[in-house]
Amino acid sequence: MSARILDGNAVGRAIREELRAEVAELGARGRVPGLSVVLVGENPASEVYVRMKGKAADELGMRAATIRLPVETAEAELLALLDRLNADAAVHGILVQLPLPKQMKTDTVLRRLRPEKDVDGFHPINVGKLVIGDRTAYRPCTPAGVQELLLRCGIDPRGQHVVIVGRSLIVGRPVANILLQDAPGANATVTVCHTKTQHLARFTRDADILIVAAGRPEVITGDMIRPGGVVVDVGVNRVDDPAAEKGYRLVGDVKFSEAAEVAGAITPVPGGVGPMTIAMLMKNTVQAARQAA
Ligand code: GUN
């Protein structure tokens, strides 16, 4: 393996350490940052993420609550809960873990959040603010984490060709918008590829920085990567592995063993982008507490 490992665990920990002082300072002014995480149903991956988010908030001294609702909850009931959290002055940030059960419309639910409490940055107001470069917006945590990881590892996207694989509202589109900004830490030339892209490898091979959020295990192979390029793997996929203790193991959207031979730098899975998502959620929640009227 020749690639440098971009260690999201270490960088995420450093960010959370920086936030500890801010949380304490806000607490001393009677404004302990409050985060409510809502989980509907029992999606095993969501369970893990929600637990990690609550733990990180607790460790920083925030006031964190995880609210669990059964899978059959009616949409109106979730909306009523969000109304209560919107009105609660001790709650600065609200996060509804996705995906939601079938009977709920994600769009309707996300629009119910007060934009000032939408620490995921998914409300149309925050999406619009991001696109126009308004820094009062919350930036979606995973895309913001990708940018922060690059910068803290000394990789400036300015003038670089960033190729993104995936156009989801959670990762692909917002990371394109973030790195396209005319702002420090951005100014990239951005290409977004997706499921209908023809000749995908033609684009990925041209990437100075390749960001993969395709949601499919190991679709990016070593031959699709530019020698010496930077690879950021956002994917987390469970694949069966009878030899593993849990019967599965986690792999990214990039075939790591091959990519690490070709790339100059690469994020591992787990331990790359994942911890950055958590760190940026904490950062957004502190921002929410600061900005609270
Ligand atoms: N599901 C997968 N990623 C995310 C995320 O960043 N936020 C929320 N709320 N749900 C998710």
* Total domain modules: 2
Classify the helix fraction into a percent range.
Answer: 40-55%
- Radius of gyration computed on alpha carbons: 19 Å
Number of strands: 11
Order of helices and strands: EHEHEHEHHHEHEHEEEEHEH
How many helices in DSSP terms?
10
Global morphology: globular
Bound molecules: guanine
Structure report:
With 293 residues, the chain is an alpha/beta fold. It has helices spanning 8-28, 44-59, 75-87, 106-112, 124-132, 141-152, 172-180, 200-204, 256-262, 273-291, and strands spanning 4-5, 34-40, 63-69, 93-96, 161-165, 189-193, 209-212, 230-233, 237-240, 248-251, 265-266. Helices cover 40% and strands 16% of the residues. The chain folds into 2 domains: 32-117, Leucine Dehydrogenase, chain A, domain 1 (Rossmann fold, 3-Layer(aba) Sandwich); 141-273, Rossmann fold (3-Layer(aba) Sandwich), CATH 3.40.50. It is built from 10 helices and 11 strands. It has a 6-stranded parallel beta sheet with strand order 1-11-8-7-5-6, with helices on both faces. A 3-stranded parallel beta sheet has the order 3-2-4, sandwiched between helices. The longest helix is centred in the first third of the chain and has 21 residues, at 8-28. The mean pLDDT is 97. Helix 7 (172-180) links the parallel strand 5 (161-165) and strand 6. Helix 1 packs parallel to helix 10 and helix 2 packs across helix 10 (273-291).
How does the SSE layout of this entry go?
Blueprint: E1 4-5, H1 8-28, E2 34-40, H2 44-59, E3 63-69, H3 75-87, E4 93-96, H4 106-112, H5 124-132, H6 141-152, E5 161-165, H7 172-180, E6 189-193, H8 200-204, E7 209-212, E8 230-233, E9 237-240, E10 248-251, H9 256-262, E11 265-266, H10 273-291
Parallel strand pairs: 1-11, 2-3, 2-4, 5-6, 5-7, 7-8, 8-11
Antiparallel strand pairs: 9-10
Helix pairs in contact: 1-10, 2-10, 6-7, 6-10
Bound molecules: guanine (GUN).
